[in-house]
Amino acid sequence: MGCLAAIAAVFLGTTQWKLSPNVVGTVMAVYLLGTGIKGLQILGAQTWVSDFFNGVVLLLAVVLSVLRRRSLTASLPGWKDPDREKPLSASNRPADSGRAPNLRAGAPVTGGRRLTVADAAASDEAVLTIRGVEKRFGPTIALRGVDLEVRKGEVHALLGHNGSGKSTLIKILAGVFRADCGSASVASETLALGDARAAHAAGLRFVHQDRAIIGALNAVDNLALNGGFPKRNVGLIAWREARDRARRLFEELGYEIDIDVPAEEMTPAMQTSLAIARALQDGEQTPRVLILDEPTSAMTSADVARLLVVVERLRMRGLGVIFITHHLAEAKQIADRLTILRNGAVVADRPTAGMTEKEIVEIMLGREYVVDERASAARARSGRQSALLSQDSVASSLRPPMLKVSGLTTAVLRGIDMSAEQGEVVGVAGLAGSGAEELLQAIAGARPRGGVVMVDGRELEPSKPHCAVALGVGYVPSD
Fold first, then answer.
1. What are phi and psi of 408, to 5 degrees?
2. Alpha-helical regions (H) of 336-479
3. Is the pLDDT of residue 372 over 60?
4. Quick one: average pLDDT of 113-125?
5. Is the pLDDT of residue 12 over 80?
């Protein structure tokens, strides 16, 4: 090879493999160039064609080296540089964070005691401030001068009955609606209410009740819906980096998830953690506030406990968290402060400590919440008497049970027998994985089964949901 070819080979080999002198890279470059030049000679190309080919290769090597250096020094969209701060990584994780915090009511969760707002760095700093926000829909007043303040490292519960204005306020922050009046700021910087891009740029992140997870895609692909895939020099997807990113995000949240499993096969808690990871993956803006809208609505108690551990980890990272829920026990367990809305107005904004669920309910309702034990006992006795009369009347009739299951078997279940009479409520209970959900799915035709299922005296064919619907069987899954 000529001098120009040698320069091109060395430059290509030392810049494209490891950005440092590399014998293997140089040998490979020499081989590729030699093969190209030999091919041109076989084709009878003139000398200037070979020189032109070497020049093009040298120019290509320079361009690729520049692109590679930029890709290694600049942050990719949706990609967190491993050399940046790693919250809760092995090097900076607290000594006791290797085990899941105990989140039972009143129990300590870190360092032998509950982590409070006072424990977080700069905890008095307000990361989100809302003042005088109002919104009308025609004659209906949805929000009436709402004030809200969320501090750094604080979990702030937003409570209120249906129609109190919680969803409207969150949609204004997310940029879905525009406020009629009012102002907001994030970390002392003014936030344009009703502007989705401004909210994202300010560091507001949302996990809505509809998690917007694509069930057919795995965790890696779902994460890329927001931040895109990391790319290689020539524009190809860097799959290894994408997978490493997904694993790291879930490790920071304390979850071990098979990133190759489709999202539709994940539990509701795992899907919520996926939505949280997708919302918090760093781009050009650092997340400051995470808004969780009814995240536990379709979860079992075990899944709720795991999610509250995730929220606790986010608190430890210094994020402000707005936690919207109808479950008062969860709010008391995880929240530092709470704001209660009623008819679009703030009626309470106070620390959670010391408040009872009865007090919270009374504030939400705007009246005293009285439980008349004698009336409750009378209603219970009346209900039992009605149930006994109903059972006697059904037993005396010749009508078959509304639902009768005999010898039902699946991959999980073995020989299940049960029945439900007209007007009767039958409870099915069991630990996670015991087969309670599989039983209902098999009855509804959503899962292969053996055995006999009779609906109002007519046999239901297995694995045919449309036949179940035709016979009047309705099924509402856990998610």
1. -70, 130
2. 357-365, 373-396, 436-443, 465-470
3. no
4. 48
5. no
Q: How far is CA 203 from the centre of its chain?
A: 17
pLDDT tens digits along 402-422: 899 999 998 878 889 999 988
- Gap between the Cα atoms of 232 and 238, Å rounded: 6
* Amino acid letter for position 81: D
Residue 175 pLDDT more than 80? yes
The one-letter code for the residue type at 12 is L
Q: What are phi and psi of 130, to 5 degrees?
A: -120, 135
Rounded Cα gap, residues 259 and 266, in angstroms: 10
User: According to the model, what pLDDT value does residue 49 have?
Assistant: 73
Distance CA 439, CA 418 (A): 11
pLDDT bucket at 273, cuts 50 / 70 / 90: confident
Task: Give the 3-state secondary structure of residue 24.
Answer: helix
pLDDT tens digit sequence for 205-223: 998 877 788 888 999 998 9
Quickly tell me which residue has 């009012």 as its tokens: 182
Do residues 156 and 323 lie in contact, with contact meaning Cβ atoms separated by under 8 Å?
yes
Q: How many residues would you count in the chain?
A: 479
Rounded alpha-carbon distances, angstroms, from residue 414 to 83, 176, 411, 437, 447: 53, 50, 8, 14, 14
Could you give the CA distance from residue 177 to residue 192 in angstroms, rounded to a whole number? 12
Instruction: Give buried/exposed letters for 293-328 (b at 16+ CB in 10 A, else e).
Output: bbbbebbbeebbbbbbbbbbbbbbebbbbbbbbeeb
In whole angstroms, what is the distance from residue 208 CA to residue 171 CA? 10
Q: If we measure between CA atoms, which residue out of 192, 263, 185, 251 comes closest to residue 225? A: 263
Tell me whether residue 161 is exposed, middle or buried, using C-beta atoms within 10 angstroms of its C-beta: 0 to 12, 13 to 18, 19 or more.
middle
Average pLDDT over residues 456-476: 89
CA 80, 82, 85, 87 torsion-angle sign: positive
Task: Report how far residue 321's alpha carbon sits from residue 164's, in angstroms, rounded to the nearest whole number.
Answer: 20
pLDDT recorded at residue 279: 87
CATH number at 117-350: 3.40.50.300
Say yes or no to pLDDT of 110 above 60: no
